[in-house]
Write a structure and sequence with these properties.
Blueprint lengths: L6 H32 L2 E2 L28 E2 L9 H14 L10 H6 L29 E7 L3 H11 L7 H19 L6 E5 L4 H7 L3 H13 L8 E3 L12 H7 L4 E3 L9 E5 L2 E2 L3 H12 L5 E8 L1
Parallel strand pairs: 3-9, 4-7, 7-9, 8-9
Antiparallel strand pairs: 1-2, 5-6
Helix pairs in contact: 5-7
């Protein structure tokens, strides 16, 4: 026996559900406004209040779109230094030139210099038209959004990697998204046809830190680009010494030899891969990971990092 659906009751149910959603959204909005009042959101880098950058009547494009993504700290009564006051003035001018990255004020956002080309991972030469012209035997092309020495990038990387401020992954992911879209656009490729593979940490190191910074950045990158993430394809099999502690290039290369393994090669065979890490110094880690991925049949590999030397 088929039970008849009462159209009136069905309509009432849909209306109730809509009202519940709207009520929930309204409560969340009020809650967000209240938190902003008690704990004003501030820029991750310069610690200036972000509210002053989103209420400029002359620059409506400066409004920050993601209120939920702001850092909330109780420093509303903290006095701004002379340097911060100068930054505020410059920041108001910077508003007219573009929007902020998440968690950053317009002034700090505008200080970031994003590259517009790819690089050879062996000699660091800029690649014309993003094609290998020198060391053709390299298994990947290096894509670095910026350089070491960039004040804002260095600070964001340090906040995420060493001070465990996870919110720093959001602006880093956005920066990589902008850079990568331009880069792949020059190749006339669809970024969604690439699989993001974060460079893994050894399981014990990840447990000690509480997270893998490459995974957090990959989440933001995937959200912005639509590229899928494959987390468990590449595995770190050795608990190697920290590369930061090894200053010699040769020692760094020896340190990571054989430390990666592709667990499911059939998932990346014939696919385009974005191998994602936070930084590229000597390149030993990225090269070893890319070598294993290439051996498993990957088609094109882009080694994507926030900054390089």
């Amino acid at each position: 026996m088929i039970k008849k659906i009462n159209p009136v009751r069905s309509k009432i149910s849909k209306t109730s559900a809509t009202l519940l959603v709207r009520t929930s959204n309204g409560v969340n909005k009020i809650r967000g406004l209240f938190l902003d009042l008690i704990f004003p959101p501030i820029c991750l880098v310069c610690r200036k209040r972000l509210t002053q950058y989103k209420t400029e009547r002359n620059f409506p494009e400066a409004r920050l779109e993601e209120r939920a993504g702001m850092v909330r700290v109780s420093e509303a009564n903290e006095r701004a230094s002379d340097e911060s006051q100068r930054a505020n003035t410059l920041g108001e001018r910077a508003v007219a030139r573009g929007n902020s990255f998440p968690f950053l004020c317009c002034f700090c956002s505008q200080k970031i210099k994003i590259n517009n080309a790819a690089f050879c991972p062996v000699c660091s030469r800029r690649l014309p038209e993003n094609r290998k012209t020198c060391h053709r035997g390299s298994p990947f092309i290096l894509a670095a959004a910026g350089f070491y020495g960039d004040e804002i990038l260095d600070r964001l990387i340090a906040l995420l990697k060493y001070q465990k401020i996870k919110q720093a992954a959001a602006p880093l992911g956005e920066i990589l998204s902008q850079y990568l879209k331009n880069l792949i656009g020059n190749w006339e490729l669809d970024i969604r046809n690439f699989i993001i593979v974060p460079v893994p940490l050894y399981w014990r190191k990840e447990k000690q830190r509480g997270f893998n910074q490459s995974n957090l950045i990959a989440d933001c990158l995937s959200k912005n680009t639509g590229s899928p993430i494959a987390r468990n394809i590449l595995k770190r099999t050795k608990n190697t010494a920290s590369q930061v502690e090894l200053k010699d290039k040769e020692k760094r290369e020896i340190n990571v030899v054989g430390c990666f393994e592709v667990v499911k090669p059939e998932l990346i065979s014939g696919k385009n891969i974005i191998l994602l890490d936070d930084v590229f110094t000597t390149g030993a880690t990225m090269k070893e990971a890319a070598k294993e991925i290439k051996k498993s049949g990957a088609r094109k590999i882009i080694g994507l990092v926030v900054a390089k030397t």
